[in-house]
Structure to design on (224 residues):
């Protein structure tokens, strides 16, 4: 499944 | 955080220290594209506006602050370097900035039905920063191809940036598989960015790794 993820990368 | 993301971040961090070491110890910014560095500063400022509204982790906060501060310092040092005319830093950056901005206005992760206008402006600037980072190295690549006396440390700087990008791709494969994490804008732009480094790594292999003592 693909989720709308928070932007937690740099 | 997975190992690929961590190695990527550490390689990115190392690239800053390599460039800072080159600028401080050689006291020369020869071979360093001011345009690429100014684009990176723009990238970090636009992307890390979320420092003000979203806390992810101390790791992220400190890395973001370091990236902005270090790139601002690098831009300052290169811009005020009197020993370097940088006549070969001739890339037309408007051909990078304007298309990235236009694309970001149309292809982004805004949700106008949710959050306020300021959050959506931040989404546009986030997309802009992703697109701009993908191509920001082009002025530096152009300089490398034109200069004969490129120092090894500049080449190592570029190599560590390329490694950072490659490991972020591995990180996204890992996260898509195990977490369902998926930001198509970042992934597509990241693939483009990594491909640009393929050109550099050919140059790196020929000029640094194959260089014979004369």
């Amino acid at each position: 499944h693909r989720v709308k993820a928070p932007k937690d990368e740099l | 955080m997975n190992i690929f993301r961590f190695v990527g971040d550490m390689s990115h961090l190392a690239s800053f220290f390599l460039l800072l070491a080159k600028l401080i110890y050689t006291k020369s910014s020869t071979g360093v594209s001011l345009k690429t560095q100014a684009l990176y500063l723009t990238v970090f400022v636009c992307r890390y506006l979320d420092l003000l509204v979203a806390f992810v982790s101390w790791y992220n906060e400190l890395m973001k602050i370091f990236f902005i501060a270090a790139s601002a310092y690098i831009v300052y040092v290169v811009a005020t370097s009197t020993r370097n005319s940088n006549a070969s830093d001739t890339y037309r950056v408007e051909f990078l900035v304007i298309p990235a901005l236009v694309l970001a206005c149309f292809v982004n992760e805004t949700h106008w039905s949710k959050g306020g206008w300021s959050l959506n402006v931040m989404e546009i600037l986030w997309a802009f920063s992703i697109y701009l980072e993908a191509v920001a190295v082009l002025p530096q690549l152009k300089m490398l191809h034109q200069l004969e006396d490129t120092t090894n440390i500049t080449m190592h700087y570029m190599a560590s940036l390329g490694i950072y990008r490659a490991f972020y791709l591995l990180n996204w494969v890992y996260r898509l598989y195990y977490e369902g994490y998926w930001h198509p804008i970042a992934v597509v732009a990241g693939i483009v960015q990594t491909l640009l480094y393929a050109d550099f790594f050919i140059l790196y292999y020929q000029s640094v790794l194959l260089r014979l003592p004369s």
Summary: Chain A has a mean pLDDT of 74. Chain A touches chain B at residues 1-3, 5-10 (CB under 8 Å).
